[in-house]
Amino acid sequence: MNPDKRLTIIEHLEELRQRLIRVVIALIITTGISFFFAEHIFRLLIRPAPDVPLIYTEVTEYFGTYVKVSLYSGVVLALPVLLYEIVMYISPALTSKEKRYLYALLPGTLISFFVGAAFGYFVLLPPALKFLLTFGNDIASPQIKIGNYISVVVRLLFWIGIVFELPVVMFFLSKIRILNPRLLSRYRRYAVVGAFVLGGIITPTFDPVNQTLVSVPLIALYELGIWLSKLAWRGQQRPVTHPDSAITH
Question: Do 248 and 238 contact (CB within 8 A), yes or no?
């Protein structure tokens, strides 16, 4: 980087402040738009549990949940702006080649998130809700608070979307030589254990079947990441020489 173009700490903080302001403005706009469609979003979120009557026990609970759904939707809609501001903030520290990789992978990051959320909604959510809402039905009937239901569903979809971005992140880190396929392959067994631990954390049930529905795709995503890492290193003049080192300089 040209010394004349280096930013001071104050200038970095000022740039960060400006970018945060733009993100907040975008979030306010997208949340406002989502507020008008919150009823449709509500109906979409409760569709996996149509036979369970949802209740609220506090005067402000339903309205608060309505606002919460609008905010969650606003965050999702504002993701492109958030990612753009993050990339533009860190881009001065990257080489021109690394910037090209990062820009090219941005759409893939968004697509991966939405694919993961769709997987959670259509594949994971129905059996998880069925287990939770039918467990112990012979003793007590469920009366689910709408705030609790929305929190559980949104949290599940959000984190599933995040973990589905794993292959894209692994590909990018391999492209910029922070990771390599030998290192990733060597730690495969730890990744498998981590996938089941993470599956237990993400899944709101103690049912091993539902936890496996999360863990197995995570393992598959890690394997896909290894394959993408090999693809990222393919054709390089200089091979990876040490499995414990992610950088071959």
Answer: yes
| Cα–Cα distance for residue pair 228/171, rounded to 1 Å | 5
Highest mean pLDDT among 7-11, 55-59, 221-225: 221-225
Tell me the C-alpha to C-alpha distance, in Å, between residue 79 and each of 20, 205, 213. Answer: 13, 28, 26
Cα gap 178→170, rounded to integer Å: 9
Quote the pTM value: 0.79
Task: Tell me the CA distances in angstroms from 150 to 5, 65, 71, 117, one per residue in order.
Answer: 48, 8, 12, 15
User: What is the rounded distance in angstroms from the CA atom of residue 128 to the CA atom of residue 101?
Assistant: 37
